[in-house]
Specification:
The complex is a heterodimer of chains A (about 130) and B (about 230).
Chain A: H1 2-5, H2 9-39, H3 45-73, H4 77-86, H5 92-118
Chain B: E1 3-6, E2 14-17, H1 19-25, H2 54-57, H3 76-85, H4 87-115, H5 120-143, H6 152-162, H7 167-170, H8 177-180, H9 183-190, H10 194-209
Antiparallel strand pairs in B: 1-2
Helix pairs in contact in B: 1-9, 3-4, 4-5
Classes of the chains: A mainly alpha (about 130), B mainly alpha (about 230).
């Protein structure tokens, strides 16, 4: 439990950033072709199928990565929902990822390292 | 007697009571808390998390294992109620109650579409149940995640509580003799014998292992080795 929800913050952060960038890049052409399809420019059936299914399954991986990062960092539920929804909206993925990393995770890592350096008793390896 | 117990405000809180603390303090109204008892500490001595008076009562009694940081005497029902019926938990229940049936309905819709000949819907009919399972999983994990000890706000709160003397509160008023009195327990902890140090090491080891949860079933009552 603790291994899942506390240790390995940097690894979880890297996985979240990787998946956020992949999903964020994929969702842009998906919406692009979808609006072209709606606008009657063309059918774009193959593009929509490939991008839709690809984004759908990669979005599952994104949810797992974001969820574990949120569990490890003890993010609050509205922010978790924002992270999940951001994988579906073009452009918002990068914004939310940026704010998550700079406002939430990096201060938390700094605080944890400071606490580990100052508090006695438990060795840093045990954290 | 040294007793390690879980407090009722969170699963990662431990309460340690030492008879030396009472002797040095000279206060009998604390009471000796037995291992299986449900006796309650006076609220003026042990203030709960977030009440803000902890620094006044125990100015130095935070920051190392063995501190008294939570109210004693919580039974299991308090913990269960806090975990499952708090505001946050209820919102989680509501969210999962909306999300999971939605995923079931969507999966059923995609299965029907796949049976009626839409090849693409086979892929989507796998995806929606996965979303539902993920929802249940994160619902469970978020219910069993303690927010106070590791999260950014919780760590900042702990650091503020562990700050030795707040200049804003101390500088204005002249020192009150009643406020000077509670430094005695800290002094009692300062003169650690080897036995107590070993016990604290054991405590730190336990605390690093995390609390007793549904998966890690470890006893939290620790006795001094003879």
């Amino acid at each position: 439990m603790k291994r899942l929800t506390q240790r390995g913050m940097r690894g979880a952060l890297f996985r979240y950033q990787l998946m956020a960038n992949i999903v964020g890049v994929l969702v842009i052409p998906l919406f692009f072709f979808f609006f072209l399809h709606l606008g009657g420019v063309g059918s774009f059936k193959v593009e929509l199928q490939v991008l839709g299914v690809g984004h759908g399954y990669l979005y599952i991986v994104y949810l797992i990565a974001a969820g574990f990062l949120a569990l490890k960092a003890r993010l609050h539920i509205p922010w978790i929902i924002l992270m999940f929804v951001a994988g579906l909206i073009p452009g918002l993925t990068f914004v939310v990822e940026w704010f998550t990393v700079t406002r939430k995770i990096h201060p938390l890592i700094a605080t944890q390292e400071q606490a580990a350096a100052t508090s006695p008793g438990v060795s840093p390896a045990a954290r | 007697m040294l007793i390690l117990r879980r407090a009722d405000d969170g699963e990662r809180r431990f309460v340690v009571l030492h008879e030396q603390l009472y002797d040095a303090h000279g206060r009998s109204d604390l009471g000796i808390i037995e291992v299986h008892g449900q006796q309650r500490c006076p609220a003026s001595v042990v203030s709960g998390s977030g009440e803000g008076h902890r620094g006044q009562h125990f100015p130095r009694l935070t920051g190392y294992p063995g501190e008294i940081i939570g109210p004693e005497g919580a039974d299991n029902m308090t913990i269960v109620r806090e975990r499952w019926l708090s505001k946050r938990a209820v919102s989680l229940h509501l969210a999962v109650l909306v999300f999971v049936p939605g995923c079931v309905v969507a999966a059923w819709w995609q299965i029907n579409r796949a049976e009626s000949g839409n090849q693409l819907s086979y892929l989507y009919s796998v995806m929606w149940p996965v979303f539902g399972i993920l929802g249940v999983y994160f619902w469970w994990m978020l219910l069993h995640t303690d927010y106070d000890t590791v999260g950014l706000k919780g760590m900042r709160r702990q650091r503020e509580a562990a700050a030795p003397d707040d200049p804003r509160t101390v500088a204005g008023a002249p020192p009150d003799p009643d406020e000077q009195q509670p430094t005695a327990p800290a002094a009692a902890f300062a003169v650690e014998d080897a036995e107590l140090a070993a016990y604290n090491a054991r405590l730190a080891e336990l605390a690093s292992k995390g609390p007793k949860t549904w998966r890690a079933r470890e006893k939290v009552v620790v006795r001094r080795e003879r």
